[in-house]
Amino acid sequence: MTRRSSSADRTGWRRSGRGPARTLAVAGLVALLVGGCAVDETATSEPDTATRPGATSASDGRTDPGATASDRGAPGRDVVPSGPVAAELTEPVAGRTAPGVAPGDRPTRVTPQDDPRGLHRGLGTVRGTQRARGRRLIVRIPAGPGLAPTPYRRDAFGSGWNESVPVAFAGNGCRTRDDVLTRDLLRVRRDADGCRVESGLLEDPYTGRAITFDRSRPTAVQIDHVVPLSYAHRHGAHAWGDRRRRQFANDPLNLLAVDGPTNQRKSDDGPARAPLPNPALRCSYAVRFAMVLDVYALTVAPEDRTAMRDACE
């Protein structure tokens, strides 16, 4: 199955060209000739770098413009949500918050479609037309046998939580784990350095239970890779470079704070063998799983694709 049939589909973005910049330049020249007024430099418009396959802005949190082809995945792939379906998922979400905002200001959970970069608290319940959009995304992920020519090694994806790769929240001086805890917990209390999360309350998306997190019991709440690292390895990540694998391991889109024991039982299984205990969010989880696969150009096991599609019926 192919995912895209045209250059517009491949990028998922409408090409902007140089229209805004050229229009502004002409307007500025007219203003100078007619009224002698200076053009406001703060109003200049830059071309959208996301209109070029494989190019994203450094603040995008998705890829390094200098990454090699093997680091970026399949040739010509963007490393932001792309294609006719994922393009629908990139609208900005008004009023959302990011790590560092007071817990009392944080809104209810955000649906995967409203959070294509994993910046906000989720998983929110997917309803109505979002379920149909989710199904369209799921069925266009190509199926693959999940076979890799090399064995999986955890250290190939980096050791610990490493933000020295281009992911969202990178460069803020905090570890990825603490960024995710800050994003997903309520009533967050940090230590003096402003990074290390000492306590908080998790509304667990996997079980639906409220779980108190305390640094003295760190395994009660764990950070789960939605698409497990070994699953990614079997479905295409074995061909990536080290930098790309570290990026995948630290990408907030692929990370959720969840109930520790449930995460342990989930292990490295896909949605078919490890359905969420919370049935209300099985479609939300399936959409998030598919979004990660789509962004990173990974394949999916046929039984997992079926289970994900059925979850959103």
Task: Describe the model.
It contains eleven helices and five strands. The chain has helices spanning 7-11, 19-34, 69-72, 83-86, 129-139, 176-184, 229-234, 242-250, 260-266, 282-295, 302-311, and strands at residues 186-190, 197-203, 210-214, 221-225, 255-259. Helix 5 packs across helix 10, helix 5 packs antiparallel against helix 11 and helix 10 crosses helix 11. Helix content is 30%, strand content 9%. Residues 1-107 have low confidence and may be disordered. The chain has two domains: 1-52; 67-311, no CATH class. By secondary structure, the protein is of the alpha+beta class. Strand 1 and strand 2 form a beta hairpin.
Q: Tell me the structural class.
A: alpha+beta
What is the string of helix and strand elements?
HHHHHHEEEEHHEHHH
What is the beta-strand fraction? 5-15%
Low-confidence stretches: 1-107
In total, the number of domains comes to 2
* Terminal CA distance: 22 Å
The residue-averaged pLDDT reads 74
Q: How much helical structure, as a percent, in the residues?
A: 25-40%
Strand order of the largest sheet: 1-2-3
